[in-house]
């Protein structure tokens, strides 16, 4: 697989997901210029309280080049961004030794939206991050009902109402006693992550931590 990856890198050189310039080092998640200029969230600035969780961390603020990159990843089919995004999220977790997960999971799309998009962006992020962290990644939740996109809702109250009861434990999944790391692309109000965490705790999970690529401020 590594030989294949190197061959693909020669044919299709990896690009920085934020400025789309070819990376000097194919294994790096971002280019040197973006490493300096992106809106990094350092220390406590990258932490958010999310109901039913021990906390949520994010390496970047949501806006500008970060927002544009996330939109290309989610809506323009650029699945390759999952790897660099996952590496940044993994580093965010590694910088916080209090996060000691047993398994990585994600906030899933509904069947309808996954069919439209062709992939679940949260799943790809979770799997890329888990590979770097040397942890198992597993589906634990299912979207029990199709909801409006959270990004189209203006208030935190509307987001919470939209997410309420939207998730259920996947049939046959056992999370009792496990420390779960829940991944998503962006946290705004935290409503989606909160509802997912509540479902996991009700199923017996010992604790839930969250990590996202970026953090937006709720309106």
CATH architecture descriptor text of the largest domain: 3-Layer(aba) Sandwich
Distance between the termini: 45 Å
Strand residue content: 15-25%
Gyration radius (Cα, Å) is: 17 Å
Number of helices: 8
- The run of helices and strands is HHEEEHHEHHEHEEHE
State the share of residues found in helices, binned by percent: 25-40%
Low-confidence runs (pLDDT<50, min 5 residues)? 3-11
Structural class: alpha/beta
CATH class of the largest domain: Alpha Beta
The CATH topology of the largest domain turns out to be Rossmann fold
Domain unit count: 2
What does the main sheet amount to? 6 strands, mixed
The averaged pLDDT comes out at 88
Please provide the count of β strands: 8
Q: Which geometry do the CA atoms define? A: globular
List keywords for this structure.
single chain, 219 residues, alpha/beta, Rossmann fold, six-stranded mixed sheet, two-stranded antiparallel sheet, 8 helices, 16% strand, globular, disordered N terminus, PRTase-like
């Amino acid at each position: 697989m590594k030989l294949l990856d190197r061959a693909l890198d020669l044919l299709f050189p990896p690009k920085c997901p934020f400025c789309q310039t070819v990376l000097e080092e194919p294994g790096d998640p971002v280019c040197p210029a973006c490493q300096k200029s992106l809106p990094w969230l350092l220390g406590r600035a990258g932490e958010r309280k999310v109901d039913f969780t021990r906390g949520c961390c994010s390496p970047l603020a949501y806006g500008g080049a970060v927002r544009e990159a996330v939109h290309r990843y989610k809506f323009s089919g650029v699945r390759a961004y999952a790897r660099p995004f996952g590496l940044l999220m993994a580093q965010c977790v590694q910088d916080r030794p209090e996060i000691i997960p047993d398994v990585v999971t994600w906030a899933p799309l509904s069947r309808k939206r996954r069919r439209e998009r062709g992939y679940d962006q949260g799943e790809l992020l979770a799997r890329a991050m888990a590979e770097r962290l040397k942890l198992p990644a597993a589906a634990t939740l299912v979207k029990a009902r199709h909801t409006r996109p959270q990004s189209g809702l203006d208030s935190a109250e509307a987001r919470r109402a939209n997410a309420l009861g939207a998730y259920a434990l996947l049939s046959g999944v056992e999370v009792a006693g496990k420390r779960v790391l829940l991944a998503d692309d962006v946290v705004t109000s935290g409503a989606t992550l909160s509802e997912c965490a509540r479902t996991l705790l009700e199923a017996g999970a010992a604790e839930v931590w969250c990590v996202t690529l970026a953090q937006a401020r709720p309106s």
